[in-house]
């Protein structure tokens, strides 16, 4: 449902449950799974003191930056990716690193983790492909009907299509994802659509911001539909998006309160870089789906645990939880501690984006897991 561009924006015309958010631009919908709505990223080169992440140039080739064309129906979509490579005499390992889904999603969150992994001894001839989701980051942002199935199909096609950024290798693939990305990967593996040798789930999430707060009864689902249609509308959609999400104060507030564990790590450069992502043409289409639950891979904790359980004896799974995750997100992560299908459960500093805020800690856990495979 979309609204004509001639309709005037009025927060009081929204379902009553959403009026407070529309009238308070300091409360954007950036992240999943918690009242705190956290999630996403910082700019590696300008955010935190990364002096504790050693980089040995001799181990890596220059980073490749390019686009891969994914075709969804009649829509050709240019998907942005970057490659890192370490050449060694040992057998090679392939990593696919996919970012957490949010309004400001970007593969930059994995850059320092990839660099750290490549410079470590014992990782062999390592190759890492970092890939933006369609509709997010530096990928094209067409007006599609985005949902969890669309994102799952993208992941499956990315892994299986000739000519994709990761299809050139005959070696085992390890998929590393944050937030919803991790859960979408697990769901695809349960269906047998992808067959990685291992999966790393960093701060895994499954519920979008509105459903986890307001629930999923019929009245709320109707309200989500209205909000979704409004956000996708030609002119009114941008107005609503600017109020709810696309403003610097809102992004800074969310990063300091929920996305990062340490507010001191949120710099003006981070805020500016993430704000710029919200201004790209088509930026509101994926968030409209994410905020209202259409990108949720499962609908309950029971389903969440069930898809992980399906990995038992099939795919080794490392779950990386965080010490400072918001209460609701933390509860879902903790449900995976000792759960069937979870080969290893660890905890690192951070909140909803530990791979960006504390890349060395995350890289260390991934490194140890790779050595155990």
TrEMBL record:
Domain AB hydrolase-1 as annotated: residue spans: 109-364
GO cellular component terms, A-Z: chloroplast
Signal peptide: none
Protein origin, superkingdom: Eukaryota
Pfam families, alphabetized: Abhydrolase_6
InterPro entries found in the cross-reference section: AB_hydrolase_1, AB_hydrolase_fold
Family matches, as PANTHER family: ALPHA/BETA-HYDROLASES SUPERFAMILY PROTEIN (PTHR47914), ALPHA_BETA-HYDROLASES SUPERFAMILY PROTEIN (PTHR47914:SF1)
Protein's recorded name: AB hydrolase-1 domain-containing protein
Organism: Carnegiea gigantea
